[in-house]
Amino acid sequence: MDLLGTTADDRGDALRVAGRALSRADLMARAGAVAAEIAGAPAVAVHATATLETVVAVVGGLLAGVPVVPLPPDSGPDERGHILGDSGAALLLAARGAYEAADGEPPVVPVDDLTSGNTPTAASPSGDAAALILYTSGTTGAPKGVPVTRAAIAAGLDALAEAWAWTPGDVLVHGLPLFHVHGLVLGVLGPLRVGSPLVHTGRPKPELYAAAGGSLYFGVPTVWSRIAADPAAAEALRGTRLLVSGSAPLPVPVFERLAALTGHRPVERYGMTETLITVSARADGDRRPGQVGLPLPGVETRLVAEDGGAVPADGETPGELHVRAPMVFSGYLGRPEATAAAFTADGWFRTGDIATVAPDGWHRIVGRASTDLIKSGGYRIGAGEVEDALLAHPAVREAAVVGTPHADLGEQVTAYVVAEGATGPELTDFVAARLSAHKRPRTVHLVGELPRNAMGKVVKTRLPGARPGPAPAG
């Protein structure tokens, strides 16, 4: 199955990563050398730094029909050993000198040393073949492998290209890690399939985004927050076409400040490693702060209550979001019990996320069922709503809300806040003036920073007193 698409683009900088450029023809030639080297391997790992070598290695795996396992460059020895062993990777591709294999790890193949004169073995894998094996964050145990098929990637990217009016005339800019759905699937395979040039800034710094001159920009909320705090960088994005935010909820104040400074209301979207992107705002439609839009073409969604009953699409009542779509995976690698638990008897994937759906179909993600649905005194409270209320306070820069044990209520609303010049009682009163009294934080911890993962998501299970659960989706 042709995943990368075809294009006559002969620009020498069709692919630019951290200041280094390749034409599409050069990329395919170098990737062809990788494909020739790894042909027949059961799977290959890639030391997924933000470099041209990572892109060459991943594309080489796709050309050879060999599943690619992106290895986070900052992973510790236990995580790295688990991913390499669990995936069955026979080789590890890396830039020359960038990775030294530990005892028991697969042999390292320096991508730079492979000559483009080699001819890869012809591979024509089916759409059901795994293109990537991505790993979940593993907050509640060892990370689980998620085989992502070629057909799922194609369906997901084509749906996004339609929703975002993404064409070969666009120039995509981002500086995201190349071992997640956002940075790798959307941010590298997306422009290759669409045929648009890619500028990867190496790191997602405001000044680098401002200087890139793109028409389509990807970022996580942390990136957009920093750009919103840098008026000069934000002003430089006025000439772009579309700003897209994902991987975590974009705080409403950041949305509004971006819109004011850049002239663009950001597009938000929702997805998971297991599902790719399933819900999004559209380039030609509305963009609503705090909401992630409508199901993409071919995607079905539903909300389910704890008792298994249906939840009304009234924009108020929360329920667990279930999805069914061609981009949803079919099961975890070697984990039949986890796979069975992830799907309903009638074939819907349980996202583990709590959402509301408005009568017009717009989705809002409230949070994770395990950490963001707080049951206090008989009430069901979405942490996201309380976080948005806290973030509306001018002194608050970041906020995370969780349920913590309470002898009388079962759970109480507890907030962890990064703020300057505000007290806990003041913030509690601020929320109580905006939301129902039972939603106010009973305890506010003022902290210097919130724990985040590589994609900028707050990891609430690392907050004192938070109940354990899976990592945030997206």
Overview of the molecule:
The protein has three domains: 149 residues, ANL, N-terminal domain (Rossmann fold, 3-Layer(aba) Sandwich); 165 residues, ANL, N-terminal domain (Rossmann fold); 90 residues, ANL, C-terminal domain (GMP Synthetase, Chain A, domain 3, 2-Layer Sandwich). The chain contains twelve helices and 24 strands. The protein has a nine-stranded mixed sheet with strand order 2-1-10-9-11-12-13-14-15. A four-stranded parallel sheet has the order 4-3-5-6, with helices on both faces. A four-stranded antiparallel sheet has the order 16-17-18-19. The chain is globular, with a radius of gyration of 22 Å. The C terminus is likely disordered.
Summarize it.
This protein is of the alpha/beta class and 474 residues long.
Secondary structure elements and pairings:
Layout: E1 15-17, E2 20-22, H1 24-38, E3 44-47, H2 52-64, E4 68-71, H3 77-87, E5 91-94, E6 108-110, E7 130-135, E8 145-149, H4 150-163, E9 172-174, H5 181-194, E10 198-200, H6 206-212, E11 216-219, H7 221-228, H8 231-235, E12 242-245, H9 252-262, E13 267-272, E14 276-280, E15 294-295, E16 300-304, E17 319-324, H10 336-342, E18 349-357, E19 363-368, E20 373-376, E21 379-382, H11 383-391, E22 396-406, E23 410-419, H12 424-432, E24 443-446
Parallel strand pairs: 1-10, 3-4, 3-5, 5-6, 9-10, 9-11, 11-12, 12-13, 23-24
Antiparallel strand pairs: 1-2, 7-8, 13-14, 14-15, 16-17, 17-18, 18-19, 20-21, 22-23
What labels would you give this structure?
474 residues, disordered C terminus, nine-stranded mixed sheet, Rossmann fold, 12 helices, alpha/beta, four-stranded parallel sheet, single chain, 24 strands, GMP Synthetase, Chain A, domain 3, 26% helix
